[in-house]
Amino acid sequence: MILGTLVTNIRNNQILARMKDPVYTEKIEFFLLEFMNSATKKSGLVYKDLYKYIYTFDEDNYYVLITSLLFNEIKGFSILTHLINSKGGDPLDLLIFIDNIIYEDNIVYPDLNLIFNMDSQEEKIYKMMMKNKELEMRRKQKEIIKKNGKGKDGNIGSKLNINSKLNINNTISNNDFTGKPTINDTYIRKDLPVDFKPKDKKRRFETSTSPIFICFKEKIKCVINQENKIKLIEVMGEMTLNIKEEDFNNLEIKLKGNYEDCKFSPKLNKKDTNCGIIKSEKGFSLNKNIALLKWRGNNSSIEVGGSKVEKGGSSIKVNANGKPSLSNPHSNSNPYINTPPLEFTIWPSEIKLNTFQFTLEIIPNLDLENLLISIPKRRLREIKFENENEDNLEWKIDSISNGDSDSLEFQCKCEDPSDIFPIEIYFTSPGCYREIGIESIKMNGEDLKEKTDIKKMREVDEFTLESE
After folding, report:
1. How is this protein organized at the quaternary level (predicted)?
2. Are strands 252-257 and 277-278 parallel, antiparallel or unpaired?
3. What would the pLDDT profile of 314-330 be if each residue is shown by its tens digit?
4. Boundaries of every domain in the chain
5. What is the pLDDT of residue 169?
6. Is the pTM of this model over 0.70?
7. Residues in CB range of 261: below 8 A, 6 or more apart
């Protein structure tokens, strides 16, 4: 009996496939891959354990019947001849002709379920080879990271070009696979947004139970590529004051550190702020986060080995320890902004035709909390991942320390590994890039530091990982 029919064009990779029983796409792709790696002539037979291929070639097209081992071969070639003669008609007529071939008889073939649902010996070998190759490549990657420590670009470990793919064509046979099925744009999820943002951000109104609460908060905008090269990074910070008791609304704050180029609230006395003193003649409002000063930082320009690269703004030099240092201690730029808060290693393995196993490894350069990494689903299909919502895949980590690492694996079908981009990231982090703090908090000579809660934190405003 006839189990299925394949028609594939080796020039444009178009495929037409019909099976007697419903099967998964992966099974059809395996039949096609197995046939293309076994066919050595333009017409002939390919025998397998439980079935055989009867095929012929005409004008860039392979016409293939998948049949039982006892099926009459002369009849098979006769059917293929009729199929070739019908190719000039309407595509619908061709489909009807193929369906009439497949469903001509209703005999139940005893090995049909075995063929479609049980892996053949070649398929088992194929899966084992792909799994071993993936494990070997991951092992070599870890050895390189341990051996080299840092790559040429200064980033930890070596990064994989996402566009590089494993050549699965040589895993079964040395024969060239001249055509490869592709996923065209009809598989793109039109119902999902092109531009999405993580939905589960844990942003909150910063507050405290202490009578006096001072918060230094920086919001980060960052865009990096898969090689962890910074395309854009900007930090916008502010200091806020929240007083809960009226007894303390006339307090005076003395700043320390890098504050001279900050912008102070116009309600404050300019002579006082020039000296780093914050006070209000009318008294501060109660139970509100009052913004007292703001600042901005970016990766404006860098000096490495005496050679200065200007991008606007003030310069940054590298000290004896190899770390950047500000040529102007009160510059808008900050040395640590030239390192991304979070570095990625993306490792794709093509385990089947257009089916990829992705491994994402992260190494933070800060202590991170509430980490959320969102991968868009718009160009992905048949996803195997535990934490999936309507629009994206989400990887959540409550906290991870500076220099630690973590990894995530998931599997999906896509046209190209770059279809998982852009990846959106959100996190909060204790501390600030800018070196600024409180020297003293007093009112009428009384020290109020013990009654004050001082908090420093960073939070992502926008953080995008792009493919290039």
Report:
1. Oligomeric complex that consists of at least the alpha, beta, beta', gamma, delta, epsilon and zeta subunits.
2. antiparallel
3. 333 334 344 443 333 33
4. 2-118, 131-256+340-468
5. 38
6. no
7. 295, 330, 331, 332
